Every structure is written in structure tokens, then in C-alpha cells.
Amino acid sequence: MTNPRQDKLIKLVIDKGYYTVEELAEKLDVSTQTIRRDIKKLSEQRLLVRHHGGASSPATKTNLDYEVRKVSETDQKRAIGKAIAELIPDNSTIFITIGTTAEVIASELLEKNNLQIITNSLRVANVLHGNKSFDVLIPSGKVKAFNGGIVGTEALDFISNFRFDYLITSAASLDVDGTLLEYDLNETMITQTVMKSARHVIVGLDSTKLIPKGSIELGNITDATYLFTDKPLNANLEAITEKGETQVVVCE
What we know:
The chain is of the alpha/beta class. The protein has helices at residues 4-16, 21-28, 32-44, 66-70, 74-87, 100-108, 122-128, 153-159, 185-197, 235-243; strands spanning 18-20, 49-51, 54-56, 93-96, 116-119, 135-137, 142-143, 150-151, 164-169, 173-174, 179-182, 198-204, 216-220, 226-229, 247-250. A seven-stranded parallel sheet has the order 6-5-4-9-12-14-15, with helices on both faces. Strands 1-3-2 form a three-stranded antiparallel sheet. Helix 7 (122-128) links the parallel strand 5 (116-119) and strand 6 (135-137).
């Protein structure tokens, strides 16, 4: 059940796509504490997606601003990143894709030794190059200003030369039938290319991504060896992952 103020809050967020706590407090003429309580309740009901400092619409088909996502659900991403890093053995060859979740995972990998890491994210490379035992490679191609991602045919050609032990990726969301959805076709094409040559596919998705968003098919969760998330899947998705033999790891 929602009250009239919460109904207005939902309409504001759905109409715009994203609002900060302060903006909502001003619009609705209440305290920021009241707005945070409302967002928490509405996110638990899956009527909104809760972020650090704001809320977004669960039905949005466009990606949130990169800096907004970077501070969203940080504790969950950190738990996922730590668990994934523990799985990766030293001396592995891995590919890490673009995104805020990928950056968090990269920071957790810094304690490993002798990894060969290929990434099409300048931000991920910037995190990882500080470990002197790592061999960090990036492809040439077009650099996207808003997230530091490298895309294009040159990047695809470079990546096709490798066989990876692990692909570490995320996605915009996971649909009810197990389809991994994305927003950007060029980024998706690179991830799909790596999937074909990776021995193990690792997907990290915090629970805000278990609500369908995005319109480009990356693949199916059954293509993944592991799914790392912070909350148990619903019965339908659990059945899909079991059928596909995808190992689900819930990171508290």
C-alpha cells in the first residue's frame, strides 16, 4: 500500500527517470529523511529502484548517468566483487568489460598475482595497472567519453586473438526468462565476442538489476558459468539457472 505522497513520488521518478533525495524533498515539501524512508519502502515493493542519494524508475529503457550508477548499491557491488576475486586463481587470463560493477570487481582483484587482463574499459585499466605483477592490455578503438569504454571493429579484431580463462561482466538487467539485457549495441557485441572464447563466464548483478531494463539481448544467464548477486533469485529464475547449470552465488 502507498499513500498519496508516495504516489506523487513514484510519478515524479517514472516521468523523469531519476531524482535525487534532495530534489524529491523539495518537490514534495517534506524532509530528506521522509523521502529516504519512502524510497526504501517503494524499492522493497519494486515500485522504484533505490540508489545512493536518489531513486530511478524500474521501467526505464535508458541507462542512468554513469556517475549516478557509480555510487549506487556500492556495498552490494563490493560484496559481489570480493566474492568474484576470491574465485579467480593467480596466473589466469581474464577479460573485464565496461561498467561501474566491473570497476568495483577490478579493485578487488588487486590482491591477486600474475594476471593477464584484457579490458575495453580505460577506467578498469586505470584501477588495475598499479599491480606490477599484472599484464594489462587494452584494444584500440573509439573511446566513449561518458564511461571510458573502448568499442568498434578494431577492438573486436584485437579481442578475437585471445582465448580467455574467465570473462567477468555485468549487464543492465536480467529479464524474467533469463535473458541478459543491455543498453549499448557496440559494448554488447564485444562482450558476446569474448563469451565465445572464454572457458568460464562470470556475471555479477546486484539485485537492482533483477528488474528488466534495457532492450538489447546480450545472451542468456544459462550461458554463464557463475552468477554472483546479493539476494536470492525468485523461483522462476532459480529454475532457469538450475536447468542451465549456472552456479548462483549469493553474496551477503
